[in-house]
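Progress note, sequence design subtask.
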């Protein structure tokens, strides 16, 4: 079962790079050359973030702001672009199939394209991730 670019997932025990765990909404932004999933986490914590819709790569914590008025999320939400995660495709798909990670929907195309464009230009992401995101973005109608 392949997941789609733009899918919103909920991981109740998302593991951060420092080892801490917390429930997180995630958005699939692309597939890597190795076919792994490139994923951005989201937050509803407005600390150090703008409430204006759109790309904020100039802020201390690069992000894309999605106000609740867009209907994409029930709360004001920021897609965190300071660090993107790469998940092994088979492991992520197995966790979804087992119900350990749940599918919550798909981000609207216009918002997804704007998030992907912003992510590809974020200064903190890996060049290979940026290339994969640009390639995926070029395939969205």
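Output:
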């Amino acid at each position: 079962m392949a997941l789609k670019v733009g899918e919103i997932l909920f991981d109740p025990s998302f593991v951060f790079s420092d080892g801490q765990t917390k429930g997180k909404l995630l958005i699939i932004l692309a597939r890597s050359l190795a076919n792994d999933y490139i994923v951005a986490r989201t937050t509803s914590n407005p600390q150090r973030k703008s409430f204006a819709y759109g790309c904020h790569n100039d802020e201390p914590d690069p992000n894309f702001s999605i106000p609740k008025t867009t209907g994409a999320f029930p709360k004001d939400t920021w897609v965190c672009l300071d660090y993107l995660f790469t998940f092994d495709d088979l492991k992520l798909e197995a966790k979804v199939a087992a119900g350990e990670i749940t599918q919550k929907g798909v981000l609207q195309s216009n918002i997804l394209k704007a998030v992907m464009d912003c992510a590809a230009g974020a200064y903190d992401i890996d060049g290979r991730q940026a290339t994969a995101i640009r390639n995926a973005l070029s395939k969205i109608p």
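The chain has a mean pLDDT of 94. Work on this subtask will continue into the next period as scheduled.
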